[in-house]
Amino acid sequence: MIKLNTNYEFYLDVMNVCYIEGHDTLLVDSEDGHVEVNGVSADQMVRLARNLFCARDSITNHTKDSETTKCYAKEIVMCLERYLNESEDQTVPH
């Protein structure tokens, strides 16, 4: 059996990284163009976030201590709290 593995490395001056719902696409945008990673579900994006923030070497260990980054972190916490509260409201006790 022949199996072909392909790996790509891109070096971009990244302007934005976002998720396109409905297309299951992770989009990395730069001045030179963009890279799309298709076939990524919303649940996989949550797992990515978990891996970024909950790993032994969390991404927060490598961020710049800027006010913008802190505002983003607060926004993430608020959205997760809202998601969890809404999920609890919809959960039926067994």
Strand content: 15-25%
Report the order of strands and helices: EEEHH
How many beta-strand runs? 3
Biggest sheet strand line-up: 1-2-3
Distance between the termini: 49 Å
Structural class: alpha+beta
**Discrete helix count:** 2
* 3D shape: globular
What is the arithmetic mean of pLDDT? 90
Uncertain spans: none
Report the helical percentage. 25-40%
| Rg over C-alpha atoms, rounded to the nearest angstrom | 17 Å
Describe the largest sheet: 3 strands, antiparallel
- Tally of individual domains: 2
Based on the model shown, name its key terms.
single chain; 94 residues; 2 domains; three-stranded antiparallel beta sheet
Structure report:
The longest helix has 24 residues, at 67-90. This protein has two helices and three strands, in the order βββαα. It has two domains: 11-62, no CATH class; 63-94. The N and C termini lie far apart (49 Å). The protein is globular. The chain is α+β, with helices and mostly antiparallel strands.
